[in-house]
Write a structure and sequence with these properties.
This protein is of the alpha/beta class. The chain has seven helices and twelve strands. 45% of the residues are buried.
């Protein structure tokens, strides 16, 4: 690394196509960057590339820790189970986390309130109030940093438009949600099922038009930058034609 790692990462992100003012949802494998890259350096580089007018978001899912046996979710204390970068990000000053027991997201930037507000009103993981369903409305983009589209949480929002038979459990779970101010609400949510199926969200990539996806490298990591609206349109069309398109039986 050179003397200014924030600037180097920011320039590499701009070369990939990240622009100031973007609303960016990031899925990342921190170890893929190599050189034991610190999470706070990566986050600083992302924020620098987006500039003060940009909004940075990451999934902070917690389904491994919050379930029917442990129905308590706290935006401040419940850890993210989808990587160390998201866990460091959600703890940073100024970052806000949506109020949802299993499929929260965290964000910072001007679009944060509109992106995250009301997620507790969804009675499914990625309903109409979720950041994943709202991302296309902000001309958002999705950055896969050292990982492929198999980890694309936004696909759950697409699936909920069609409700394929594998997607949700029959019976809802009553969760107790605690926000950053310590206020509690109860939310009844039908959790994911997927029993007997493997998710195949990587099947989305060949459906996208060439202009909707940019590929590049960030240090040691292969990356993809994807237009969220194009992903929504292509994925929804595939699901409407075949509700089982993005899964395969185990």
């Amino acid at each position: 690394m050179n003397i200014n790692p924030h600037l180097e990462l920011s320039n590499l992100l701009k070369d990939l196509g990240v622009k100031p003012g973007d609303t960016l949802m990031v899925h990342a494998s921190l170890r893929s960057l190599g050189e034991a890259m610190p999470a706070d350096i990566v986050i600083a580089g992302l924020r620098r590339a987006l500039g003060p007018g940009g909004t940075l978001a990451m999934p902070t899912l917690s389904y491994e820790a919050v379930d029917a046996d442990n129905p308590m979710f706290d935006t401040e204390d419940t850890p993210s189970c989808v990587g160390s970068l998201s866990e460091v990000f959600r703890r940073q000053q100024g970052v806000v986390r949506s109020l949802h027991p299993t499929h929260s997201a965290a964000a910072i930037g001007p679009n944060t309130p509109d992106l995250l507000v009301g997620h507790e009103n969804d009675h499914t993981p990625c309903g109409e109030h979720s950041p994943f369903a709202r991302l296309p409305k902000f001309d958002g983009r999705i950055l896969f940093l050292g990982c492929d589209m198999s980890v694309n949480t936004s696909m759950h929002a697409l699936e909920e438009q069609v409700m394929p038979p594998y997607l949700l459990q029959d019976e809802p779970v009553d969760f107790i949600l605690t926000d950053a101010r310590g206020r509690q609400v109860t939310s009844s949510v039908r959790c994911h099922n997927f029993e007997g199926y493997r998710q195949r969200y990587d099947r989305l990539e060949p459906l996208l038009p060439p202009e909707a996806i940019k590929r590049g490298q960030l240090l040691a990591a292969d990356c993809m930058l994807v237009d969220a609206q194009a992903a929504w349109d292509a994925g929804l069309k595939a699901l409407e034609q075949d509700p089982m398109y993005f899964v395969e039986k185990l």
